[in-house]
Amino acid sequence: GQQVMQIPQYQHVQEGEDFTTYCNSSTTLSNIQWYKQRPGGHPVFLIQLVKSGEVKKQKRLTFQFGEAKKNSSLHITATQTTDVGTYFCAGQITGGFKTIFGAGTRLFVKA
Amino acid sequence: EAGVTQSPTHLIKTRGQQVTLRCSPISGHTSVYWYQQALGLGLQFLLWYDEGEERNRGNFPPRFSGRQFPNYSSELNVNALELEDSALYLCASSRTTGTVGYNSPLHFGNGTRLTVT
Questions:
Q1: Contacts from B60-68 at CB under 8 Å and sequence distance 24+?
Q2: B56 CA to chain A: closest CA distance, Å?
């Protein structure tokens, strides 16, 4: 079936280190969204990427959409303790409407 | 703008019982989605309603069902509860997903924590 794979499952970093999570789809995506879920909270929308090769930045966060629109990444520069949580990618399959979430990457930041 | 509201926040049920969870979307949003999130795990898609119609359902047994009302609020019903149904049930709403290519962002509620004993 259609799947969106996300790696790694967990990542422990020291505060100040960089962090990257990767998202891969078995099929071409129309677009990809990224969400953040703080511990005990609910997912919150961060950004959407639509164009092939698109790169967007939000302060220390850089989001990329692959040229083939099958993969995406979220990179955080110089992590802070406020970055802790689970980051989910969510892809919309080309030609369809359903949004499929990746399993998420849980980020732990040690001060 | 009021966010997505879900009720109840917590629920404890016994195996075999039935439960109804409720969700009110953000005003102006016509699409409602239900997801199951088992402890520490990802989001498993349950159901999607738009304009009162069920548009898609995930890989869950028929004892998971729901509906969307004319005011776009929604209910999720789970019959014959099993222990593995214990999870956080998240409802999300969005503006109608009527355009392939652009996906309206999902706005999630705080969820209903269901414990089945």
A1: B60/B36, B66/B34, B68/B32
A2: 7
